[in-house]
Design a protein that fits this description.
- This protein is elongated.
- It contains five helices and ten strands, in the order E-E-E-E-E-H-E-E-E-H-H-H-E-E-H.
- The chain is of the alpha+beta class and 250 residues long.
- The longest helix has 18 residues.
- It has two domains: 163 residues, Nucleoside Triphosphate Pyrophosphohydrolase (Alpha-Beta Complex); 80 residues, Winged helix-like DNA-binding domain superfamily/Winged helix DNA-binding domain (Arc Repressor Mutant, subunit A, Orthogonal Bundle), CATH 1.10.10.
- Strands 1, 2, 3, 4, 5, 6, 7 and 8 form an eight-stranded mixed sheet that branches.
Amino acid sequence: MSLVSSTGKYADESHLKTLSSSSSGARRMVSVDNVLFGCEVTQLKVLLIKHASGKTSGRWGLPGDWLRHDETLERAAIRVLRARTGLGNIHLEQLKSFSSIDRYPDDLTITTAFYALIRPDDYQLAIGEDELEVKWFPIADTPVLIFDHDKILKWALARLRYKTQHEPFGLNLLPEKFTLLELQRLYESILGTSFDKPNFRRKIMKAGLLQDCHEKQLGGAHRAASLYKFNPSRYQQLSKEGFMRYNSII
């Protein structure tokens, strides 16, 4: 989904006056950046914004902005995501901070990145005042990003893939009842690879993560597949403990 606006101003320096300097004259600006992944059945995407003006006009980047004096990093990340993309009610997890000396052209800056994984169809994008466009890009087909946003994206993708292999996921990405093939395709879209079907199913079932619904999928062209759902208590347990016993789930 792509939204275009004919107006907009990138707030490159909108919060500079709120940033303080030390007595030695050194100044370190602080910002937040969000990496929002969207997972469809067979493809992983990332949400990017195109800046409307300033030094980065016409270029793509992650939704980000400066930290204000009266907010925490977490509140800033939530505010920025809503202001730049229209998306809210999303649980953002802190990734890490990036502080390379040359990451921003004019000043010393530190940015703290947050990330999340959602199902794009569940949300409606809204163009922000400082953007020309907001768009989902396939992970394998992203444009060159501003500053060090390519590096931030790579870190977030690596973290997401690690968590996918070592913690249960999919509760908010799949329908309540799903087939094992749908679950396998979800894993493949996140990890960017394919799996042997029998081996994948054996490991998933061994973890005790699923419950058999004793129902069949309707409307398929081939033999009806069995439907499963997540075991809530087991899902919660493994979310806390991880798949340590199994090294990784796949």
